[in-house]
Design brief:
Number of domains: 3
Structural class: alpha/beta
Shape: globular
Strand content: 25-35%
Helix content: 25-40%
Largest sheet: 7 strands, mixed
Order of helices and strands: HEEHEHEHEHEHEHHHEEEEHEEEEEEEH
Distance between the termini: 36 Å
């Protein structure tokens, strides 16, 4: 039998990596106020793993700059490789593709190749951007097994301010401050003696972040335009009249079209009342918690059910992007997510058991996804304002009723 070919993975292209790194370094330091503490790297040589939380799209560059001029092979979701331009660039940058929510042997083999050649692999264990300035998504306990299997040192880059500089719900960047600190998490030897549970809990502790708590202490001034626009992609419930999907934004203002409640986002990125009778929360974190507590009360009703009309897309093999399958109605209960509608012209029912849903990737104001292995279904609600409630409801049901505290 012919031998199977080992999946190819290259070190990041040196010319591209160093050129981008030098230019980005100037931009991040002078424009975004990036400050880096590299004390955790003292005396450390590759191979090793680099772990970090995932507050913002800026994280990839922040982590790369924190380790610069060392070149990191980052691990990223296979979804990004469905874009031909990104696929080309990621190939040049030595990015390791990973199918989320499933065991990806190809990604493990590529990781072994990088570590075996004295390289560094960068991983964001949560696998999902933050909604409100704290860790989002679900850090799979399998990260502990991966680290224990390779038995090489592990460092974490703790980042503060990246979410505030460029949250997921806007494309605009704010000028303020970002802090990154490199810290040693494990040396190779101690991974032999630690249990997977101990490794997992320590990883979570070292990649934790809370941008609003950090900002309440530091009170950094952020400069930018239209600071609040897009916030309704995460904030959907008015704290005054309790109406849902009634929030709108313009400039630095978030307001409710149902009761005229108004919040102004100041240059420290905290909300202030826009009117004397306004009821607002100062940060996205507290507003998000308010939404979560109200939604928890809803899902504890055994008869809980949500519904919305949606377009359905899928990741057709051999093609770039996502292809339309049909249109229908999506229902959510404590037991399942159910789509009833058309698929390529036929009327069907698709059911996704809640116990099998680990995480809900989504793009604010665009779509959310449910995966079965490598098979991904992308839902684009007719009313995009409902999306954050759906994402949050699915996560809360999963955490509340299905293995809320999984062990490695």
């Amino acid at each position: 039998m012919p031998e199977k070919k080992t999946p190819k993975v290259s070190r990041p292209n040196a010319i591209l990596y160093y050129s981008v790194g030098l230019l980005a370094g100037l931009y991040f330091r002078w424009f975004l106020g990036l400050k880096i503490d590299r004390s955790g790297l003292k005396g450390l040589k590759p191979p090793f793993f680099v772990l970090a939380g995932h507050g913002s799209w800026l994280d990839f560059m922040v982590i790369a700059l924190a380790l610069f001029p060392r070149r990191i092979n980052f691990m990223a979701a296979y979804n990004f490789f469905r874009d031909p331009v990104l696929k080309f660039l990621m190939g040049w940058m030595g990015v390791i593709s990973k199918n989320q929510f499933t065991i990806d042997n190809q990604a493990i083999i590529k990781t072994k190749a990088v570590i075996g050649s004295n390289g560094m692999v960068g991983i964001f264990p949560h696998g999902c951007l933050s909604n409100e300035g704290r860790p989002g998504g679900f850090a799979a306990p399998s990260i502990a097994k991966l680290l224990k299997a390779f038995k090489v040192p592990v460092v974490a880059v703790q980042v503060s301010g990246a979410y505030l500089s460029r949250p997921r719900w806007t494309t605009r960047i704010r000028r303020g401050r970002i802090e990154a600190k490199v810290t040693g998490v494990f040396n190779g030897e101690e991974l032999n003696s630690l249990s997977a549970e101990d490794i997992y809990s320590r990883v979570l502790r070292f990649i934790d972040f809370d941008d609003y708590q950090w900002q309440r202490k530091n009170k950094v001034t952020f400069r930018g335009k239209k600071l609040a626009e897009g916030a309704e992609g995460v904030l959907y419930k008015c704290p005054k009249c309790l109406a849902e999907f009634s929030l709108r934004t313009k400039g630095n203002k978030l307001f409710c079209i149902s009761c005229n409640n108004e919040a102004l986002l100041n240059n420290q990125l905290f909300f202030e009342p826009g009117r004397e009778d306004s009821i607002v929360f100062d940060g996205f974190d507290i507003w998000y918690d308010f939404q979560q507590q109200n939604l928890l009360a809803e899902i504890h009703d055994p008869g809980f059910r949500m519904g919305t009309d949606t377009m359905l897309l899928w990741n057709e093999p051999g093609k770039y992007g996502y292809q339309e399958m049909g249109h229908g109605t999506l229902y959510l209960t404590r037991e399942a997510l159910t789509y009833e509608g058309t698929v390529f012209g036929s009327v069907v029912t698709l059911t996704f058991s809640m116990k099998d849903i680990l995480m809900v990737p989504y793009a604010a104001g665009e779509y959310f996804e449910i995966a079965k292995g490598t098979d991904i279904r992308r839902f684009v609600p007719d009313d995009l304002r409902v999306m954050m409630k759906w994402v949050l409801a699915i996560r809360l049901i999963r955490d509340t009723f299905y293995e809320s505290k999984p062990k490695p």
